Amino acid sequence: MPSSTSSSNVEGFAAHRAPNIPVLKVIIAVIALSVMIASGLELFWSAQGVQPSLRNTPEVWSLEVHRWMDRRPGSAPAVILLGSSRVQCGVDSVQLSRELPEMDVYNLSVGGTRSLEALKFLSQHGALRAGDVVVAEFWPLAQLGAMDRAPYQQKWRLFEQGYTNPSFSQDIEATLDVAMESTLRSVHPELNLHHVFTHALSKRRVLMPLETMRIDRFIALDFVHQEASRLARMKSKHAHQFGQVEPMTADAQLELIHEFEVVIQEIQAQGAKVMLFHPVVSGVTREREQDLLEQQAFQLDALRSVTDAYVSYEESSTMVGLECPDEIHLGQEDIPAQTSYLSMSIRKMIPGE
Amino acid sequence: MIFNSLLFGLFICVVLGLYYLPLSWRVRKGILLLASLSFYGAWRPEYLLLIGFSTVVDWWVARAMWSSKTMRARRLFLLISLCSNLGLLAFFKYGNFIVNNINGLSDVLGSGALVNMPDILLPVGISFYTFQTLSYTLDIYRGEMKPWGSFLDFALFVTFFPQLVAGPIVRAQSFQPQCEQPRKVHGRTFLWGWVLFILGLFQKVVLSDTLLAPVVDLVYQPSLSPGFLDSWMGTLAFSGQIYFDFAGYSICAIGVAMMLGFELPDNFRSPYASRGFSDFWRRWHISLSSWLRDYLYISLGGNRCSSARVKFNLFMTMLLGGLWHGASWNFVLWGALHGFFLIGERLLQPTLKTQQWSRSLLGKVVGWGITYALVCIAWVPFRARSFGETFEIYKGMVGLSSSTLIGPRDFLLAGCVVCAMLVAQNYTRHRTLEEVAAKVPVWFLVLILVGMILLTLTNIGTARAFIYFQF
Questions:
Q1: Which of A25, A258, B97, B198 has its CA 20 to 30 A from that of A291?
Q2: What tens digit of pLDDT does each residue of A116-135 get?
Q3: Which residues face A134 on adjacent strands?
Q4: pLDDT of residue B425
Q5: 3-state SS string over chain A?
Q6: Which positions of B are annotated as active-site residues?
Q7: pLDDT tens, B289-325?
Q8: Prediction ipTM score
Q9: Measured distance between the N- and C-terminal CA atoms of chain A, rounded to whole angstroms
């Protein structure tokens, strides 16, 4: 740079150098070949059983928030699902809508977050109505255990900003992305070049995606087609992460429970009901959670007393029998059972039922 | 709106459709101006006011300066332009940085936080368009050009959407003639523009975001101490990531402009094939380095002063060039390192010129290797988020940490991409892309284009925003 002042002008213009190529032939050949190969790729993934999947982005979440906030006056009461990936992957909103035809279901859960932040968001936006049911995940191990809340809060803020601080064209861009991703299998987030290439290099077989997110934001987890080694890694990671969680200090617990109580009461004051939902866990994580629950029964009772319902998998013999292949998430084949159990519990909360 | 989005795909189709209608040149320029404002407004419409302010002030200042009779008046108008443009930059880009430093200093002195500053969103492209308009008023001040006669043309120059948010920084002297004559788009230039756009997207989406960024993200994490191999591979991968990201954007911009019949200057010329740092800065972000050379380095005295002063000028130019990239001491450190490298090269040059071996193949390879290694070492503070993280990576690079973060497959993949990039850049050191393409059979070019389109489309989901948008 500066020492180049004595050199000749370094600027050049590609426009002057455009090579002489047969324009029409190249454009037609490129478009025709691209369409043919892309169609072949689509057919290949379709034959493998791959379904189109959306990316789980703040923009798509924001579209769902808008859908909830922009409800027409007099529309059906809402069931709003809040929580982590255990709700997003654990409750099929289409099935829930089918089983609760008198209600509209909105899935605002976000993987990697906790429901307290989501409850605060809901209580502050004034879009709740009488008759709405808020289903918030309550995972005692993660809520009452001594875990760093900062990463969960950070992830929540990222999604919340997608709604509170959007770019002008965000919704249009998200709608276009959703339209493409819900149509084409080749743009499945788990089938990107990096994953497919590294997998094919080492395993010499086609990679099957684990997660498939539908337009209603439900994520179906396909553990069946995953390799045993991958499953074992996931299981051991979660067992390590949650199997040794220590309880919070008594003061921290009281503070947390108080935060829950305040926000639940704010939501109830707006006429909505709050259900705390404790989805299935398995293996070492379940054992650790049961230990913790025995020690923390008092705090949990305090929380139960302010909610309209507390629903745990432990109260149903069917649910207790379900297994999470990675310790904390159910596979897609077990989702109907958990969803039915939840819809039954919600039905009990509806007046007149 | 970003190039790697579906919305841009629709936008450009509509713009090209309207622009090619058989309308008067003035109306077609009006369409481009409206398109540019929509492109920018799609992000935050309220920030159109800023770009409008910058445009109106510099338009008025340039005319007033030109008609001024005295040097004093010309200086006053130049000062107005400098204050308004640099003032915008200082407030929106450096406001938080300055306030944080003042508060940090007062904390150290024990007097607590002194100033409160609301969180301000950095207007995208502000560093680029302020430099562009500044170059116009500086050229008028120096008597190198006359003020433009058409406000429409000037507004189009400031807001021209292909290069508005991340360059190349265009000079008024090269853009003005293009606005005066109706642009004719030939099939050959349209096709080449389209090819460049696809190549740019491929570099950004596939090479930068999909293949290299995940490896970089593994290594550059707060509170981790990567080992020797990881630190080096993460940094080499970042050298590729930032090149493909930024050069990819520039190529897209040049390609889109070409489809509209406009010519934008080259911004990169195989920078990692450089032998020496002055060579590097003639090849990396050319539009910025030539801007800094012409308006900052020369204003400081350039080469026409004492040896010590020349070195000071070099160092200051690089330091401010570093700060231009972002409001952080890490960017200042990056600029300072390049300043030291340029000074070191200047000190060594007389000795090297007398050495026969430095002109041999071995000498050239050694020169290239040292330049690339030092450029990579300087990338560390540029990528790291803090001095602490920078220090951890440097520790790893000299073998003082031992943790392994990158798996063997990722290591191999990133290594292959970086090696291919270096081989390709050394091959094109004295060749242009157009020369290479002209020698390739048409069927092979078609296959490459199809491959790039399919890989880009199937990986578009992993795309991130362009790194240089934050500058």
A1: A258
A2: 899 999 999 878 888 899 99
A3: A80, A274
A4: 93
A5: CHHHCCCCCCCCEHHHHCCCCCHHHHHHHHHHHHHHHHHHHHHHHHHCCCCCCCCCCHHHHHHHHHHHHCCCCCCCCEEEEECCHHHHCCCCHHHHHHHCCCCEEEECCCCCCCHHHHHHHHHHCCCCCCCCEEEEECCHHHHHECCCCHHHHHHHHHHHHHHHCCCCCHHHHHHHHHHHHCCCCCCCHHHCHHHHHHHHHHHCCCCCCCEEECCCCCEEECCCCCCHHHHHHHHHHHHHHHCCCCECCHHHHHHHHHHHHHHHHHHHHCCCEEEEEECCCCHHHHHHHHHHHHHCHHHHHHHHHHCCEEEEHHHCHHHHCCCCCCCCCCCHHHHHHHHHHHHHHHHHHCCCC
A6: 325
A7: 999 999 999 988 888 888 889 999 999 999 999 998 8
A8: 0.79
A9: 78
A positions 29-58 inside 8 Å of B (CB):
29-30, 33-34, 37-38, 41, 55
Residue-level pLDDT at B469: 58
In tens, the pLDDT along B41-87 reads 998 899 999 999 999 999 999 999 999 888 899 999 999 999 999 99
Which residue from A minimizes the CA distance to B254?
A14
The pLDDT tens digits for A170-192 are 889 889 999 999 999 988 888 87
Nearest to A101 by CA among A348, A347, A351: A347
Q: Please list every residue in chain B whose beta carbon sits closer than 8 Å to the beta carbon of residue A181.
A: 461
Q: Enter the tokens of residue A158.
A: 């990222």
* Cβ-contact A226, A206 below 8 angstroms: no
Nearest chain A alpha carbon to B410: A198
In B142-186, alpha helices (H) = 151-159, 172-180
Dihedral of the alpha carbons of A217, A218, A220, A221, in degrees to the nearest 10? 80
- Pairwise CB contact (< 8 Å): A25 & B210: no
Residue B461 touches partner A, C-beta closer than 8 Å: yes
Residue A145 to residue A252: CA distance in whole angstroms: 10
For B161-177, how does the pLDDT look when each residue is reduced to its tens digit (9 = 90+)?
999 988 799 999 999 99
Reduced 3-state DSSP string for A119-130: HHHHHHCCCCCC
CB contact under 8 Å between A5 and B453, yes or no, is no
- Could you tell me the two tokens for A309? 């319902």
Q: Which residue has the tokens 């029409």?
A: A24
Cα–Cα distance for residue pair B153/B156, rounded to 1 Å: 5
Say if residue A42's pLDDT is above 70.
yes
Tokens of B378: 């300087």
Tokens 């290439």, located at residue: A197
Which among A33, A176, A194 is the nearest to B450, CB-wise?
Answer: A33
Q: Helix (H, G, I), strand (E, B), or coil: what is residue B428?
A: coil
Residue-by-residue DSSP string for B2-47: -TTSHHHHHHHHHHHHHHTSS--HHHHHHHHHHHHHHHHHTT-GGG
Q: Which of A12, A38, A202 sits opposite B266 (nearest CB)?
A: A12
Whether residue B313 and residue A18 make contact (CB cut-off 8 A), yes or no, is: no
Contacts for A9 with CB less than 8 Å, ≥ 6 apart: none
Q: For residue range A224-249, list pLDDT tens digits in order.
A: 888 888 889 888 988 888 888 888 88
A168 near B CB under 8 A: yes
- CB of B305 within 8 Å of a chain A CB? The answer is no
- Chain A contact present for B319, CB below 8 A: no
Q: Tokens 């309308």 identify what position?
A: B23
Sign of CA dihedral B233, B235, B236, B241: positive
Contact B445 A172 (CB under 8 A): no
Token duo for residue A336: 């109907």
How far, in Å, CA of B465 to CA of A31, rounded?
27
User: How many C-beta neighbours within 10 Å does residue A351 have?
Assistant: 6
Could B281 and A30 be called an inter-chain contact, meaning their C-beta atoms sit closer than 8 Å? no
